[in-house]
Amino acid sequence: MNNSSRGKRTIFPQKSKVSIAIIDDDESIREGLAGLMQWLEFDVATFTAASEFLISPNFANFACIVSDVQMPGMTGFELHLRLLAMGHHVPTILITAYPNDDAKARALSAGIICYLRKPFDTKVLIECIRSAIAPETA
Fold this sequence. Notes:
The protein is of the alpha/beta class. It has five helices and five strands, in the order E-H-E-H-E-H-E-H-E-H.
């Protein structure tokens, strides 16, 4: 295999683009994650808050959400619960700079796919996304 044949497709071979939502009030995190998702050949949309995500006309069409836990207005965990209450089961990955074992346990028991501490290992995030979208790419 030459260098030009190496690339992102070896990580996530896809038949069609999968849409990922990034929700974080920290611009540098949003932009960094969006760049990674684009490099992995996902369609990506970014939002500065959970409320902004919820008013998006396509919020229910995302294959996965990567959201900060602590944000003004509504936390990432509260967003997940709101979506479930609305009947939308969008796989969600939470990231936080303020990890809490009790919060992590509650989140995972409520169906959160992964609960990652910032700074997180990109490889771990990729594995979480792979797990979250597995039915989408099967």
